[in-house]
Amino acid sequence: MSRRPTLSRLGSLAAAAAMILAACSTGASSSFTYGPSLPVPSAAPGGSKAASLAPVSPSPAATFPLTLTDDAHGVVVLPKQPRHIVSLTPATTETLFAIGAGDRLVADGDFDDYPAEVKDLPHVATYSSVDVEKIVGLGADLVIAGGNGFNKPDAISRLKGLGIPVLVVYAPDVAGVLSDIRLIGDAVGNGSQARALTTSMQAGIDSVKAATAGLPQPRTFYEIDATKDIYGPAPDSFLAQEIQYAGGNPITTGDPAIFSIPLEKLVAADPQVIVLGDSAYGMTAAVVAARPGWKTMTAVRSGAIEPIDDLVVSRPGPRLVEGLRLLAMAIHPDLVLPPYGSPGPSASPVASPSGSALP
Amino acid sequence: MATRAEAGLVQPVVAGWLDRARSRPGLLFAGLVVVLSAALVLGVGFGTVSIAPVDTLGILVHRLLGLNLGGHWTAAAETIVFEIRLPRVLSAMVVGVGLSVAGATFQGLLRNPLADPYVLGTASGAALGAAIGILIPIRIALFEFGLVQLFAFIGALLAVGVVYRISRTGALSPLTGLLLTGYAVGSLLAAGLALTMYVSGTNLRQIFFFLLGGFDGSSWLQLAGTAPLILGGSVLIMLRAGPLNGFLLGEETAGNLGVDVRRERVILLGLGSLVTAAAVSVAGLVGFVGLVVPHLVRLVVGPNARRVLPISALLGASLMVGADLLARVLGEIPVGVVTAVIGAPFFLVLLRQTRSAYEL
Q1: A214 vs A316: CA distance, rounded Å
Q2: Which residues in chain B have Cβ-Cβ distances shorter than 8 Å to A172?
Q3: CA of A175 to nearest chain B CA: how many angstroms apart?
Q4: Rounded distance, CA B176 to CA B189, Å?
């Protein structure tokens, strides 16, 4: 008698999960950039929003030893200023360079691609694993990891168990990105640079909001991927919030735990603008227009289908304002935005390991 | 193609080797002890960071025996060897032992060659438990075991318990009842798992990794928490090799031979499930080893559980340690994939070469 072992049934489930993951990873680059467009579970940091609503006050330069609370409510104790930093997400790597701590970065993740300096760093985190052994071998004294499941929680607790401080960051919204930049700044002893950066970013965000304030808000669908199912922003997600700031009315999946939207629902929502977050993967307005059933949408009929650099839009890092501006111009092609200066010292990292205040 | 000619050369070699192994199980046992030791040494010696063998040895002697051979190594090297590699390699060994012994037990008890440690709903129960543990945002940890491991352990045991209770009330024979109930309950739990995965959002990846299995979270504390259960349970099963042999002849015959069938069945099922649940809570759902290792061993030494159980334990441990080493060196690919890729061709060769009639 042949009865299939239970595992084979689980195997097919696992295969299904793999397909879902693959779908997300090919199109939704946001899942590589620690899921900013994904919904916020109840484990989300409670304090981030409140903290960033408060006026940004220039805090005194952090002194070590230092104790911080991260976005996963973990208490991180740093006996001295970190000199060998490992960053496991593209956004935190960008942040470290933008606040002048890039020269202390000793390893990063496989998908980190900006700025160009990171190409030469050893990579210790893939999509599915973290090389704990290599991180220990590099003598890391601070690991900055992505929360909300971006980096494998097993690996994070393993690193902590080995006595390596791990700062877990997860930004559920735009304000969270800014407070994470300040948190990282404090952790590496570059708090002043981080605050200078977030002040400038906040001004950039405010200018986009101001420029779009009086405009009509077209129904906007941000397409993350549509190779099989159609993936778009969940309600209240980082991406949906960005669309609002950029002067659009976001069409979402309708449920924070669901990332795909049925075609029927999208047709009924009738987007006036479609933004192609998957344009880097070869998606074009012509392909969208030729899809069966899409012709009835206002955006398709009027040709309001705009490609965009999804990495800049959905990565919760220092280039957030650039992404927001791209998004605003995709939604309102005639919009004129005031110039946005170089956000802090990102172009030329300021080597200032002592964490002294910027002018 | 030279494969036919090569097969002609390999065939008598393998067959002769099989004959010798069959006639001298003691030698086979000793050989496997050597293989396991080699796997352990290689497992501790290699990884993504290269550490000189002298240093590795020095660190082990220093930490395990308290002797200082005068080597100089970095603190990082000491952490890597003693806190990362050693507990990981030993976890793989312990889980390999547990899954192989549990697999052999379930196959014998249920008289079904397709039985594996997960056959009575353990896998779906553990997976559903782990998935629920992942979705609950509370993070507590005892012995570096969080909710995920705890719920996986409880889920596995609950599933088997429910299967056993339901199967006893039916009109079917106990074995058929157990297998069919296991299948039905497993399907129900798998549906629950599918639903949990569907609503899990960003936690989907974590659930997925649990389903794949692996050892990258291993630590001394986790090992200390599970090794006694797994190894203790395995030894207790081995002590019941006699009754297990009785079950191989059929429950009626076993009864006639003086085996208290109902009692032994519960004990063996309980021990096998306990071992499996503990193994699953450390390693996730590592497939293949529990199904195939006992068959491999039976192909060589025959069906006697007194030989099958200890030799399966050694072979399963070696395979798991070796597979985990390969998985690490190849960049953290899922260990279950490696065990299947190594084990399946080996199994097929043995199946084709075996001369004696194979029976469970």
Answers
A1: 26
A2: none
A3: 20
A4: 20
At residue A48, the pLDDT reads 41
Sign of the alpha-carbon dihedral angle for B3, B5, B8, B10: negative
Chain A contact set for B84 (CB, 8 A): 132-133, 136, 158, 162
Token pair listed for B180: 């069919």
For position B173, what pLDDT does the model report?
76
Strands A105-109 and A66-69: unpaired
Placement of tokens 């930490």 in the chain: B63
Between CA A301 and CA A239 the distance in angstroms is 25
B32 and B307 in contact (C-beta within 8 Å)? Answer: no
Report whether A256 contacts B201 (CB < 8 A).
yes
> How many CB atoms lie under 10 A from the CB of residue B355?
9
**Cα distance from N-terminal residue to C-terminal residue, chain A:** 79
Q: Give me the pLDDT at residue A151, please.
A: 87
Round to whole Å and give the CA distance between B65 and B54.
Answer: 16
Task: Please state whether beta strands A85-87 and A142-146 pair in parallel, antiparallel, or not at all (unpaired).
Answer: parallel
Q: With contacts defined as CB-CB under 8 Å, which chain A residues touch B80?
A: 133, 136-137
Residue B102 has φ and ψ, to the nearest 5°, of -65, -40
Q: Which two tokens stand for residue B89?
A: 């390699």
User: What six digits make up the tokens of B72?
Assistant: 């100089």
- Which residues, including other chains, have CB under 8 Å from residue B359's CB and lie 6 or more apart? B303
Spatial neighbors of B140 by CB under 8 A, at least 6 apart, are B146, B147
Query: Alpha helix locations (H) across B170-260?
Result: 174-198, 204-212, 220-239, 241-248, 251-256
- Integer Cα distance of A223 and B157 in angstroms: 44
Which of helix, strand or coil describes residue A240?
helix
- Contacts (Cβ under 8 Å, ≥6 apart) of B260: none
A136 vs B84, B139, B141: nearest CB = B84
Contact state of B118 with A157 under an 8 Å Cβ cutoff: no
CA atoms within 13 A on the CB side of A263: 11
Provide φ and ψ at A139, rounded to 5°. 70, 35
User: Residue A221: which H helix or E strand, with range?
Assistant: strand A219-223
The segments of chain A whose pLDDT lies below 50 read 1-9, 16, 18-60, 343-359
Q: Is the pLDDT of residue B232 over 90?
A: yes
Q: In B91-123, which positions are buried (b, 16+ CB within 10 angstroms) versus exposed (e)?
A: bbbbbbbbbbbbbbbbbbbbbbbebbbbbbbbb
Residue A128 has what pLDDT? 78
Q: What is the pLDDT of residues A70-121, one digit of tens each?
A: 999 899 999 999 999 999 999 999 999 999 999 999 999 988 898 998 988 9
* CA dihedral sign, ordered B61, B63, B66, B68: positive
State whether residue A287 is helix, strand or coil. Answer: helix
Report the distance separating Cα A170 and Cα A147, nearest Å: 5
Q: Which residue of A has its CA nearest to B291?
A: A5
pLDDT at A357: 37
B54-110 per-position pLDDT tens digit = 888 888 888 888 887 777 888 888 889 998 899 999 999 999 999 999 999 999 998
What gap in Å lies between CA A262 and CA A251, rounded to an integer?
12
Give the closest residue to A143 by CA, choosing from A195, A98, A108, A190: A108
Test the B interface: residue of A1, A3, A6 with most B CBs within 10 Å: A6
What's the CA dihedral at A117, A122, A128, A134 to 10 degrees?
Answer: -150
